[in-house]
Amino acid sequence: MILALGPFCYTDTLLISKIIRIGKSLMSSSSSEQLKYELLTILDEVILTSVSLIESNCGLADELWQFLKCFPYSARYRLYANWKKEPTIPIMIKTRALTMKRIKYIMKRLSKENVKFSGRQIGKLSHSNPSFLFEYILSQIQSYDNLTGPVVDSLKYLTSISYDVLIFCIIEALSNPSKDRTKHDGATISPWLLSLANFCGSVVKKYPVELPGLLQFIANQLKAEKSLDLLILKEIIQKMAGIEAAEEMTIEQLSAMSGGELLRAEGGYFNQVRNTRKSSVRLKHTLLESNLAMPLCILMAQQRNCILFSEQKHSHIKLVGKLYDQVSVYYSCTCVSVCLFCLTFIFFFCFFFFKCQETLVQYGSFLSCNLSIDDYIGRLPHLFKLITEYNLSADVAFFLVRPMIVHNINVCLMRINWILLKPNYDYIFNHFRSNLKNFVKTKDHPKVFTYMLKLGKL
Q: Residue 414: exposed, middle, or buried by beta-carbon count in 10 A (0-12, 13-18, 19+)?
């Protein structure tokens, strides 16, 4: 009976509200799994299409979010994808055209001076049609990077469901296969990706958005050996936790990084970052609840080894070949062309390798500063397992387990009389390192021990 109404249920807002409340009650009952797909069908064919025809009802949008958040983000994103499709009913086509006309008018006049007024207008439009609305806003941000600041400030009047749809639209824009992530020379990142990453980091820091879907998308991209999406994670950590991925550091910054959390935050970075405690706690809880804290770290470490042999093979060698052909036209000397080809290839490899490396160090610093030692030890695999099963290099594996080693040394110091044995701190550390070396040496892979000895890690 409800499905027969379709989008024309918009004429009775009270009926829509009652259907939403009944569905929310059913999802909290014991029979929720049996009715889950029926409720998703009602949401897809009746409620969302009806909400699109109701003008600026933030109360109904909040009721709808209370119902939608009972479903996982994967089910919600499927609903949003269907919600964004081109309608076939004439009244919905007319409503969509009028909404697009209004949002284009607003975006043409959006500036720092009228952010508050324009933000209220965007908020009213997003209550009923957030999907294609944000798709157009994101397309403008990708074209004009100076819109990022005003748009971020204008989003403070959105509802929770609008923020969730916004994250879905960001993921959809990032996964667009028709856009090149690098410029035609292959050496620099495309401006649209930089603008979108900056916007994404600013939004997740300033507003209470749902992050599991976005973090899972980054993990899936790393599994597919696409390292450029680490730019999104880099911006999220920098904005939410205040930890920069510094390429070059001064002597004073290196000295500050050897201190505590406050000294590192004040003197270890170029930019002065404020008010990141709440956002960093929110990011930490999201990583722990979605079980992505250590998998993301391990995927980044594995990505370093994939850049040369996998990613270059599929994409950047083609770009290098184009550059090689162009160079060969101007330089007839074979040896000069070969040298330029090799230098270009090395530059591409180093560029992506160090981007991956700096994001790994940034993310590892965030985990060591924000996770408790119990969470860190309980979620990180053992050192030997990281090297043998996950195929991490020894330097990365020791970088990840360093907080555990420091914790074990401190525990040993707490068990003894510090006053009597203070001069023997070096002896305790050397004793602990000797035990670690013996443990690794007695394992089934002697090549691992030999490799680490060559690196000077033990």
A: exposed
Greater pLDDT, 93 or 257: 93
Name which of 327, 305, 324 is nearest 316 in CA terms: 324
* Predicted pLDDT at 444: 45
Question: Is the full-model pTM beyond 0.70?
Answer: yes
Do 91 and 133 meet the contact criterion of CB atoms below 8 Å apart? no
Nearest to 232 by CA among 270, 204, 272: 204
d(CA 47, CA 19): 8
Token pair listed for 112: 């720092």
DSSP state of 252: H
Could you tell me the CA-to-CA distances from 441 to 187, 238, 319, 457 in Å, in that order? 42, 39, 44, 13
What's the start-to-end Cα distance of the chain, in Å? 72
Place of tokens 């992530």: 181
Whole-number mean pLDDT of the chain? 79
- The predicted pLDDT at position 432 comes to 64
Question: From CA 304, how far away is CA 165, in angstroms rounded?
Answer: 33
| Burial class of 178 by CB neighbour count within 10 A (0 to 12, 13 to 18, 19+) | exposed
Q: Which two three-digit tokens encode residue 416?
A: 């003894």
Q: Tell me how far apart the alpha carbons of residues 352 and 187 are, in angstroms, rounded to a whole number.
A: 9
Q: Which of 321, 325, 317 is nearest to 349 (CA)?
A: 317
Q: Distance between CA 283 and CA 161 in Å, rounded?
A: 19
- Over the stretch 225-277, which tens digit does the pLDDT of each residue have? 887 888 899 899 988 888 876 666 777 777 777 777 677 666 656 555 566 78
* Token code pair at residue 361: 């160090």
The token pair that represents 431 in the structure block? 């004793």
